[in-house]
Amino acid sequence: MSIAANTLRAYHFRRSIALATMLVSLVLVTTGCGSSPVANNAVSLNGDNVSVEKFDKAILQLAEAEQITLENGRATGDVARSVLGAMLRGVATSQIVKQYNEAVTQADDDEVLAQMQQDPNFDALGPDLKDLILSMNAEDLALARIKAPAEKEVAAMYEKAPASLGALCVQHILVKESVTADKVLKLLQDGGDFKKLAGEYSIEPNAGETGGVLGSADGDCLLLSDYQAQFDAGFTAGALLAKPGVPFGPVKSSFGYHVILSRPYADITLSLNALLAKTPGQMLVVGLLATSKVTVGSQYGHFDAATNKIVAN
User: Which residues of the chain form CATH 3.10.50.40?
Assistant: First the structure.
């Protein structure tokens, strides 16, 4: 078992993840001003880049630590995309920590190092890998201290791009045929009541009662990360495009065709702010990735906001 699989990464992110993914999520990121040619970058987010050279160095270090296996001296396919995905998240984490005026402290470093030293495989890692693990997890601690934005800022962010907050607050009408979805969309654009039309047209059970609202017992919003991990990718992609208060569609999924409404902020204010108060740092990182321009070297694939992954072209 790797040093990080069930200790450090699970400690901060409530999930187990391979060392190959965790080691390179932050430290190998170059935070320049985007002056390097795009061809020399493996991945870029808002002008902060991970160079191909840095990526290749990370792969070699991971191979030396026997955390990944190379093919003809290089990582390919899912291995490369997994490592790049972790590095991309590291860039986003760094940007959010800086944006919300947080920073890694000596206490963060000390806490992470103490956790690392408890692992029986700690001494087997080289000094560079130890530094990588330490730096990445210390940044995660800084991220965990971030407070939710003020309600006024939340409202402004929601109006501009709801997903930037790391949550979606939507309702939908599901039908079997695209022509029916077009009809429903036209009725809504002409002033039709969403809940009433959901009851009349949606094939989703209990749509007349719920109005097609996708929420939980805790409120009318769901984490964007839940959409990305659990929902049909086609539906999530459509939900990401919807603007507050404006019916959007038709959106095709494996279930049929949807008309989606990103609900007006006034309707979901309490639910959204309550959700955001729980894990604001993590939500803001997910939201930043979903609503920013992410550039991935074509040899690796492209970033899919609907799944929050780098996928093959």
Answer: 151-275
